[in-house]
Amino acid sequence: MAAIIGAALDRVDGHAKVTGTARYAAEATKFPNQAEAVLVQSTIGAGRIVDIDIGAAESAPGVILVMTHKNAPRLASNKANPIQPGEAYPLLQDDRIVFNGQHIALVVAETFEQATHAAMLVKARCEEDEGPVRLDQALDRLDVPQNFRGGERSPDSKRGDPDEAFAAAPIKIDQTYTSPVEHHNPMEPHAAIASWEGDELTLYH
C-alpha cells in the first residue's frame, strides 16, 4: 500500500475509454426488436405536476408508449411506512416532485433517436413549491415515519463542547489543509437493457 500512495498509476481501461473502443452495457448486447426508452426529467426542485401533455409525443414516429404517473403500473408499497431510509423515491406513482431532475415520464420508441425526439415533446405544467432546505423539512415532505428519525430527538445533534475542549487542550495545532478540485465525470452512458424470456427477466447494466 505504501508504494501505491502518491505514485502515478496507469488506468488499465483508460486507453479503451478515451479512444471510444470501451463497450458498456447498453452497447454490448442487442436483441431482435429491441425498443429504446428515454426519461423525461422535472425542471423544478419541489412541487407537483398540474398537467402533463403527452399527445405530441404519442403521435411522434416510432413511439410505442409514453408512461407518466397517470398510466404507470402501481408499485407495491407499505402504506404505514411508505418510504424507508435508504430507499429511492418511487417514480411515476403520483404527481409530487421532490427533487430537481426527478423522472416524470418515460418514452419508449423503436429507436433511441425517436425516443429522444418524442421525450422533448412531453410538456409538463408544474406548480412549484419552496424546496426543503433542512433535513426535518425533507423528512416531512417524504412522509418518513417518526421511528426512523431518532424518536423525539432533533435531526440537529451536538455532543460535547468542541470550543471548550480546544481551548483547554494542552497542545494545539493550527494548520490549513487543502486538496485539489475533483469532479466526477462518468464517461459511460447511464443505461441498461432488459430482456424477457417467458417469465425470466435478465438485466444488463
What secondary-structure arrangement, pairings included, does this model have?
Elements: H1 14-18, H2 25-28, E1 36-41, E2 47-53, H3 55-59, E3 63-67, E4 96-97, E5 103-109, H4 112-119, E6 123-128, H5 135-141, H6 162-168, E7 193-197, E8 200-204
Antiparallel strand pairs: 1-5, 2-4, 2-6, 3-5, 7-8
Structure commentary:
- The protein is an alpha+beta fold and 205 residues long.
- It has a domain at 28-73 and 89-133: Aldehyde Oxidoreductase, domain 3 (Alpha-Beta Complex).
- Helices cover 18% and strands 21% of the residues.
- The protein has 6 helices and 8 strands; from the N terminus they run H-H-E-E-H-E-E-E-H-E-H-H-E-E.
- The strands form 3 sheets. A 3-stranded antiparallel β-sheet has the order 1-5-3.
- The model has no long low-confidence stretch (mean pLDDT 85).
What is the CATH architecture annotation of one domain?
Alpha-Beta Complex
Q: Which CATH top level class of one domain fits?
A: Alpha Beta
Biggest sheet architecture: 3 strands, antiparallel
Report strand %.
15-25%
Number of strands: 8
Shape: extended
**What is the typical, i.e. mean, pLDDT?**
85
Strand order of the largest sheet: 1-5-3
The helix fraction, in percent, is 10-25%
For this structure, the CATH topology of one domain is Aldehyde Oxidoreductase, domain 3
| End-to-end gap | 31 Å
Could you tell me the radius of gyration in angstroms? 24 Å
Q: Helix count?
A: 6
**SSE topology string:** HHEEHEEEHEHHEE
**Content-based structural category:** alpha+beta
- CATH homologous superfamily of one domain, by name? Aldehyde oxidase/xanthine dehydrogenase, a/b hammerhead
Low-confidence stretches: none
